Amino acid sequence: MRLLVISLFCLLLIALYNFWFGDSGYRIYQQTKIEIAEQKAKNEKQSQLNQEAKAETQDLKQGFSAVEERARRNYEMVKPNETFYRILKSEK
Fold it and tell me: pTM for this structure?
């Protein structure tokens, strides 16, 4: 009877060791859970960038106004008879 109890106790210790430190143990599970959360955050950020690029592509395909706005914003272009003003922040 004593040998059976000792054997069962040893099996329990082996099972607990495998649970905590084995190849598919709890620590690996926690690390994988963290990696999944990080990847989901990256995916969300990339999805947002993709949506912005898609919206910009749609704007560029649909009309001249998007091209004009982009030229004004990025290259400071103005139409004839317009005055361009640049507002600078003070260096305080």
Answer: 0.49
